[in-house]
Amino acid sequence: MYNNYGNPPGMQMPQQNSQPGQFNNPLYGASSGLIRSGLGVYGEKFLDSSSEFMQSNINRYFSNPQYYFHVNDQYVRNKLKVILFPFFHRGHWTRISEPVGGRLSYKPPIYDINAPDLYIPFMAFGSFIILAGFTLGFMGKFTPEAINLQFSRALIGWAFQLVILKGLLYSMGGGEVPLLDLVAYGGYLFAGLSLAVVARLIWAYSYYVMMPWMSLCMGVFLVRTMKRVLFTEMRSSERHSSRQHYFLLFMAIAQFPLFFWLGSIGA
């Protein structure tokens, strides 16, 4: 009744399609190779452009950290004189530029007294915390919690100074200044604070003279520095000149409450 393959008699088996599959088609292999090579070239271009974009933005906003520590003893001494006694600085306030890689770049601090650095801010910050510990010890209030509070207040004060500088530049349309430049400018306040705390340890009443003086000096230093950034490095439009002066005045006045708040150790 049925043959050996189990099919009814008289029924023909359907013929198998003998056309080659996609993996045996030479045209399919060539087209897939072209697609893979095209995607590879596109992906490489995309990664290269993304890498260049990230690198340019990192250099644009953060710059090279090693640049800010390229200092020597002579630079530190001269820079402290400019920060603590800006009235007696007879030189210019502009930075020295040089061509590097087909574009202008600024010389490191070791060759330019007006270049920002991070060595002085970090050393001054550490000195201020140590001096605050000595002050708390003389007052009989030294505890780990008290020194931790002073450390936190110092960080908050540094961040507040950075917000003031960043807000000033942003309001003037100059948000492209490297962030580490502003961190350095904001951290210079601890140099004046450390000197005021030392004077307080020597003679308590000198605090009421040194704090206003250091606040005034820091305000003058920042005003002259930020005017250079606004008018020279950023080349801002003159139509904002009156608003710039108001912001610069606010920045200078803000140094007084900031200094007294950070200098009120043990209060």
Automatic annotation (TrEMBL):
Chain segments carrying region Disordered: 1-22
Domain of life of the organism encoding this protein: Eukaryota
Compositional bias (Polar residues): 13-22
GO CC term (a single one): COPII-coated ER to Golgi transport vesicle
Membrane listed as a keyword: yes
Compartments reported by the entry: Endoplasmic reticulum membrane; Golgi apparatus membrane
Keywords of the record: Endoplasmic reticulum, Golgi apparatus, Membrane, Protein transport, Transmembrane, Transmembrane helix, Transport
Membrane topology: Multi-pass membrane protein
Transmembrane segments: 118-139, 151-170, 182-203, 209-226, 246-265
Xref: Pfam families: YIF1 (PF03878)
Keyword Transmembrane in record: yes
GO biological process: endoplasmic reticulum to Golgi vesicle-mediated transport; protein transport
Family recorded in the similarity comment: Belongs to the YIF1 family.
Xref: PANTHER family: YIP1 INTERACTING FACTOR HOMOLOG YIF1 PROTEIN (PTHR14083), YIP1D-INTERACTING FACTOR 1, ISOFORM C (PTHR14083:SF0)
Name the UniProt record assigns to this protein: YIF1b
